[in-house]
Amino acid sequence: MVNFWIRKVEDLSKEELLEIIDRELKGLVTDKYVPTNNFVVYFAEREKIPAIIEKLMEFSYTRLSVIAGNDERYYMNKLSLTYIIAFDKQDLYIGIRTYLPFYDPVAPSITDMVKAAWWNERENRDLFGIEFSGLKDKRKLVLPEYWPDNVHPWRKDYPYNKPVMDWREGLPDYTPVRETKDVDVIGFGPYHMVNDEPIHWRLYVKGEVIVDAEHRGFHNWRGIEKIAEGRLTYNQIPFIAERICGICGFTHATAYVQAIESLARIDIPDRARYIRSLMLEIERIESHLLWIGIACHILGFDTGFMLSWKTREHIMHLAEVLTGNRKTYGMDIVGGVRRDVLGDRINKAIDTVKKIRAEYKELYNMLINNTILVKRTRGVGVLPREKAISYGVVGPVARGAGLDIDVRKDHPYAAYKELSFNVPVYSEGDVLAITLVRLDEVFESLDLIEQILDKLPKGPIMAEVKEIPANKEAVGVVEAPRGEDIHYVRSGEYNKIQRWRVRAPSYANIPPVREMLIGYRLADAPIIYASVDPCLACTERYLVIDIETGKKTIISDEELKAKSRKLSKTMG
Amino acid sequence: MNMRKYFEKTDKWVVTFRYPLEPLEPPKELRGKPEIDPDLCIGCGACAQACPPNAITVHTDYDEGLKKVRIFYGRCIYCGRCWEVCPEGAIKLTNFFEMATPNKEDLVYEVVLPLHRCPRCGNYLEFTERQVHRAYTLLTRLPEERRKELLERMFLCRDCRRQVFSLEEFKNRRRDKYVQASQTPF
Question: pLDDT tens digit string along A179-199?
Fold first, then answer.
């Protein structure tokens, strides 16, 4: 077991911390390499990985962000794993890299120590064929069940355009992961709007109470990273990065271009930095208002839903005027932004912010004084602090559980170093806390937009970029509306990308939903779910299997929502 | 504030539009359908190079002597990169967005340009006539001597150029270059 966060280091500077880490890891690591300002890579043997992770996770404000696998057979005939650990109070990312021989790609599993590694290890097992000794969960995460076990699509010898086999052949039967003798199983999904992809939960219920839950997602997994590694040049990728997510697309594009800019050492103009911040804040408001509306809708408070989305429409229109599109802004490019904020549009933006602030204040007062909303969310779906640390949750979920982490403050990017804002933190860890974090953040974002428009420096919006140096690596981080969005990029030859690993915030936030669901009622499941992500299932139907009689009943989406609303009525 | 008060204050109840029944005017900044002006396009293919989803493609037909710049709006993501990179200003972004159609072929637009023909051997080159003309207009900026030198062979294809300007001349020129290079101080 790891003793999380027992060594308080948040007051130390980056250099002091690096000295301590160097001292602690002496003998465990073999080499050190500093690719960029905020990214340090240590090389280690694979047997030493659990010991290193255990040591590093003892420092306060650390998270296991992502485990990026890579196929480096072209360079050294080996596969590699990079465990990227964030040090949130020092603006530092530490990568632990281990090389695995191609004929024996086995690494020790650390899922028992750090829950954040759970999905990462399963993903690397699927896509690179790296086995993790000691990993109990041998189910597939990313690839479908019918996919052959010895084909690993992210190895470099697998072409990006190879067609997938016919999915209708050899679909295995579903086997539950736990004993279902005395529980009912409720399928939940897979058509689901969480994480912009269908997602499936199996809820094991005793009567009305959820006793366990099982996740199966990635039905809509598209392999965007492989397309980018295979055929796109570095300046075409921002546009496909923007299409990773339908709600926070601009954060993905920004994270990618930031990674490229830091590995190629490009300084972007001040005006471009400010415009990026402006668009990120507009996107945050848009995403939070969308989430508030959906949450109200789930709780049967449709007036809140309508009013929230009415307010949201103003910001969508502003985005359309500033960038040329309501959602896919298409503003980011390596070296700057593509459209300037000029003339009348600044006045338009200021007017819009005023209008939204007035409308949102009324909406805010209405929401927090609504007894149904507060009663339905208080004390529901509690994620304890220790579990939040172990799962490495990010964004409003982390801030609702009392962890004071925000990438805008901790790893300043774009123009956030020159702007002042507060990070709302609540310690309860329930759905109400997460809701309040999101509600408060809208005010902060409105303030930020006003500050940015006030301070907007003059000058060019794009720096000249010629060629991207080969075999450099970097991480790009952005605070998406849902949390930290991290992109690990390694550049390749001919202006292409050798490896691009995207870890969206929901990748860290969905695994703990299992812990949050246990012990609460079935009618609470929608709102617990929704607390993590801005969208909840607009599922066509839910399948209920009565295990004892073997009878299958189908509850429609409307019925489950009606159940949820009925509970609201009894409370109101 | 409770809900009753909120609704007493609100005067405007309907905020939506009856869109398909009444026209909707998009803002003029909207990145909509990109249109290629066939009069200005020279067929250089810069747009096809920049297009992230390969919506614009260039096909060269040496038999008929035509270059076809084809845009398929079904693949277009309306990013506007083609508009940015076009050296001739031939691509225009409109704010037209109602592109739905039952027929896929409505979404294809093609600019067909004649390829340049070598005046000596009669073979087609990979450049269009307009590209060569554009290069010709650029020559006016050069000094007189250099321009004359280039004019002699700019219309010829690669093979004809080799035949017209003999190997000897090449050798002389290379020797000159070599002598010049060796004289430069290090």
Answer: 777 788 887 766 654 445 577
Torsion of CA A147, A148, A152, A153, to 10 degrees: -40
Task: Please name the residues in contact with A286: beta carbons below 8 A apart, sequence gap of 6 or more.
Answer: A247, A312, A315, A316, A319
Q: Indicate whether B4 belongs to any domain.
A: no
Residue B163: inside a domain: no
* Chain B closest-CA separation from residue A43 CA (Å): 36
Q: What is the pLDDT of residue B11?
A: 62
A198 phi/psi in degrees, rounded to 5 = -65, 140
Interface of A with B (CB under 8 A): 232, 235-236, 239-240, 243, 303, 307, 310, 313, 317, 320-325, 328, 330, 338, 345, 362, 365-366, 369
Residues of A in contact with B9 (CB under 8 A): 362
**Measured CA distances, A530 to A292, A293, A420, B109 (Å):** 10, 11, 30, 44
**Closest partner residue to A325 among B31, B53, B81, by Cβ?**
B31
Q: Give chain B's domain count.
A: 1
> Cβ separation of B84 and A338 shorter than 8 Å?
yes
Overall fold of domain A224-500: Cytochrome-c3 Hydrogenase; chain B (1.10.645)
Q: Which residues of A touch B78 (CB under 8 A)?
A: 325, 330
pLDDT for A69-121, tens place per residue?
A: 999 988 888 999 999 999 998 899 999 999 999 888 999 999 998 999 998 99
- Structure confidence by residue, pLDDT tens digits, A380-423: 889 888 889 999 999 899 999 999 999 999 999 989 999 999 99
Taking CA atoms, what residue in B is nearest to A325?
B30
- CATH fold, domain A1-130, is Beta Polymerase; domain 2 (3.30.460)
> What is the pTM (predicted TM-score) of this model?
0.88
A47 near A107, Cβ under 8 Å?
Answer: no
Q: How many other CB atoms sit within 10 Å of the CB of residue A44?
A: 19
Residue B118 lies in a domain: yes
Range of the domain at B61: 29-157
Name which residue leads in pLDDT, A499 or A148: A499
Q: Which two tokens stand for residue A177?
A: 């992961």
CATH 3.30.460.80 in chain A is located at 1-130
The alpha-carbon gap from A321 to the nearest alpha carbon of chain B, in Å, equals 6
Average pLDDT over residues B28-34: 89
Domain with CATH 1.10.645.10 in chain A: 224-500
Reduced to 3 states, what is the DSSP secondary structure of residue A104?
coil
Domain annotation covers residue B86: yes
**CB A320 to CB B29 under 8 A?**
yes
Query: In the predicted model, what is the mean pLDDT of residues A236-264?
Result: 89
Q: Which CATH number fits the domain that encloses residue B150? A: 3.30.70.20
